Fold this sequence. Notes:
The complex is a heterodimer of chains A (256) and B (307).
Chain A: E1 4-15, E2 20-26, H1 28-33, E3 39-43, E4 54-62, E5 67-73, H2 77-83, E6 90-97, E7 108-113, H3 118-127, E8 133-138, H4 147-150, E9 156-161, E10 168-169, H5 172-183, E11 187-191, H6 194-206, E12 211-214, E13 230-232, E14 238-240, E15 247-249
Parallel strand pairs in A: 7-8, 7-11, 8-9, 9-10, 11-12
Antiparallel strand pairs in A: 1-2, 1-6, 2-5, 3-4, 3-6, 4-5, 12-15, 13-14
Helix pairs in contact in A: 5-6
Chain B: H1 5-8, E1 10-12, E2 15-17, E3 21-23, E4 46-51, E5 64-67, E6 70-73, H2 82-93, E7 100-104, H3 109-118, E8 126-130, H4 141-144, H5 147-160, E9 165-168, H6 176-185, E10 190-193, E11 197-200, E12 202-203, E13 208-209, E14 215-219, H7 224-237, E15 242-245, H8 251-260, E16 264-267, H9 270-273, H10 277-291
Parallel strand pairs in B: 3-16, 4-7, 7-8, 8-9, 9-10, 10-15, 15-16
Antiparallel strand pairs in B: 1-2, 5-6, 6-14, 11-14, 12-13
Helix pairs in contact in B: 3-5, 5-6, 6-7, 7-8, 8-10
Amino acid sequence: MPKQHVQAKVVQHIAYNEDVRAITLFAPSLVRDSQPGQFIHVRVTEQYHPLLRRPISICDIDHEQQTMTLVYRIIGEGTRLLAAVEPGGLLDCMGPLGNGFILQGNRPLLVGGGMGVAPLVYLARMLCPQPVEVLLGARSKQEMFWPELFAAVCKNIHITTDDGSLGTRGNTIDVLPQLIQTGNYDMIYTCGPNPMMRGVVEQAQKYDIPCQISLEKHMACGVGACLSCTCGASDGKRRKVCTDGPVFWAGEVTEW
Amino acid sequence: MMLDYQQLSVDIAGIKMKTPVMTGSGTFGFGVEYADYVDLNSVGAVVVKGTTLQPRAGNRGQRIAETPAGMLNCIGLENPGVEEFIGNILPQINRYDVPVIVNIAGNTVEEYGQLAKLLNVPGVAGIELNISCPNVKQGGLAFGTCPDSAATVVEIVKKNTHLPVIAKLSPNVTDIVAMAAAVEQAGADAISLINTLIGMAIDIHSWRPVLGNVIGGLSGPAIKPVAVRMVWQVAKAVKIPVIGMGGIMTAEDAVEFLLAGASAVAVGTANFVNPGTATEIAQGISDYLTKRGITQVGQIVGKVQTE
């Protein structure tokens, strides 16, 4: 399918907490072809600063409404401008970009940390009606707004927070071994901070469970041209996070 | 988009282009990456990513950083090597009706010669010499900041190819005109400028440079006035055609370069922002010309009045 470059209409833009927003776009052409784990490259201003697009993973899709939701954290000038876009306005989008998750296996476990949870929502939706289990980590209760997004599509949601304000105190890696030992999983999907994903990959390998990781890197073009986001791979060749990824098999890429 | 090729066509050192709007090396991959977004058949020419004899992995660490109205990059000439390019990539671009210009980078003068020789193959329309990359330890900029070295590279490449040779100049020099004169004297068929300006960004929280390679090349609208000035100076001083680039985002920007003396322009960083830029700018130039009753783009080249 050809990639799209469209002006998508903003239908909803809500705050999950002080600095996390969910923007919902009416974009039939983007919705039609999007796979879990792919991303949208968003232009946040027509001015020259900030100049580059912002790659934002697809959090969820409503095929009936033909809408797509992107969840992002306001961290700099670009996302601050994005946060100012009001419903009814248009958003310049390229996508869907990248290679998403490969849906395989019968007993999936999804492990997400921080904003890395976002692409797992649509993944869980597409895995249904398989029994999906999700392990989510965040710093605190204020950062754990995800459970309701998974409510309709998950069998079990396990939660950890660093400060113990919700779920188990600690991080996802603290509870992961116990889950794996009792869960009989045959596929682990993970997205989040690199140290967390390294921990997940380590456990997956220890228990010989195939694992897919979703990487994040600074990128300019999003289409494989600028080579800002490449990383080394175990076959000695290079991979582009934007077009070969962002989802890779654990062990496929070495430099992350 | 229906472009008026009669009005827009240019001939740069024998390379016939349908429009004066090319894509800059390193900003458009091998062209095919953008096939979903832009009609490659309507692009003036595709200048492919800097190609080296052996594959290169590029630099480690963060490779780009945004700066006001621009970006820094330190990719470090990552590329699959000339053999892979000729065998597997060139046939893909050649499916489109667009001249392919190969940007080459050597660690030594001899490597430039070898690359030029290997690229004497059907489907390559011209060679652009990367003597201005700020992000590699050997070669690159080392050849682009000394007139004699630049001339030596041009000479050896001319000996090894029948194709038009374009020398891409670095703005990181004291006297851009001296560089231009040296490559013209050495036999270059055209000059392209400017490559990126060397810059740096520092993370004030970690006290570390933002870029993995510490310094990088600045591109984008921030560098446009420097580029226009250098194109103007060089175009006045040489007889060979000049390809102008540096921060072009709009047709108005492109017209500025044409008036400054560029016979063609290249769009670089703008491709990242709007993948349709190259053809949209061509249409915009056409509109500009038509509005003024100008029938051929060549008629405005170098027409800035400074007296």
